[in-house]
Amino acid sequence: MKKFLIILSLAILSTLDLKAQQLPLFSQYYYNRFLYNPAFTGTQSQSNAFLIHRSQWKDIPGSPVTYALTVDGPVSKNKIGLGLSLFNDQMGIFNRNGLYSSYSYRFTLADDHDLTLGLSAGVIDNKIDFSNSNAHDVNDPLLYNQTQRKVTVDANFGVAYMWKDLHVGISVPQILGNKINYLETNTNVYTTLKRHLITSVYYKVTLSESAEVDFLPSVMLRYVKGAPVQLDINANFAWKDMVRAGFSYRLGYAVGFNIGTKLNDNLIAGYTYEYVLSTLGNYSGGGHEIMLGFTFGGNSGGLSTEELDLLNERIESAETTNDSLANELNRKDQEHDAELERLNEEIEILKLETETGMIDLNGDQDNTEVRVENVADFQDENGKPVEPGFYVIMGAFKNKENALNVKTQFSSKYPTTIIYKMGDLYYVNVFYTLNEAAAIKFAEERRTEQPDVWVFQLK
Question: pTM here?
Answer without folding.
Answer: 0.60
